Amino acid sequence: MERSDATCDNRQRGPEDLMQSLSSQLQRLAEQARQTEDVIAAARHHDREVLIAHRDRLRNSWDSVANAASQHIDADDAAWQFRWAQLRERVRGQFAELQDRVEQRDAERDASANERDARRAERDASEALGFAVLAVDGATAAIIDAELARAAADAANAGVER
Predict the structure, then answer these.
(1) d(CA 141, CA 143)
(2) What are phi and psi of 74, to 5 degrees?
(3) Exposure string for 28-49, b = 16+ CB within 10 A, e = fewer
(4) Upper half-sphere CA count for residue 130 (Cβ side, 13 Å)
(5) Which of 16, 18, 6 is nearest to 142 (CA)?
(6) Alpha-carbon gap, residue 4 to 110, rounded angstroms
(7) How far is CA 130 from the centre of its chain?
């Protein structure tokens, strides 16, 4: 799934530019959701090659986005650096764990182990989608907070008390 290096330092932009950037990022998120639907369709048809290709593109895309985002996190914001590092490590760990499971499953070829792995992978997928929903909700709250903070700052700069 293709992702863009959309993460950028919006503090140097005006409010209109920020909202345009957020809108653009939301459009990319919607495209990623459509691509995820394609993955689900491939899973329904048991198209292993398509699924593996999607997984590899996703892994490469994540590395690219993570590296780009790391460059734009304010060096003075230790809290954001810490949270970003945690998220990066969690996702990398999930990819590594997934790869380990795939390799182990291929080696075992045991029906009960494969069934157990399938249930675990399905649960992981459900949890990941739940995390994505929470992340979108968090992003929405952050956008609202950003706009309200911008309005308060503009009002203060204009000499109007809120």
Answers:
(1) 5
(2) -55, 125
(3) ebeebeeebeebeebeeeeeee
(4) 6
(5) 18
(6) 40
(7) 12
Cα–Cα distance list, 85 to 20, 26, 52, 78 (Å): 27, 23, 27, 10
Q: Write out the two tokens for 36.
A: 């995820």
**Helix, strand or coil, per DSSP, at residue 161:** coil
Q: How far apart, in Å, do the first and last CA atoms of the chain sit?
A: 44
pLDDT tens digits along 103-143: 776 776 677 777 888 899 888 888 888 888 888 888 887 88
Distances (CA, A) of 136 to 13, 91, 142: 22, 17, 10
CA–CA–CA angle 2, 11, 27 (5° rounding): 30
DSSP string, 121-138: HHHHHHHHHHHHHHHHHH
- Overall pTM > 0.70: no
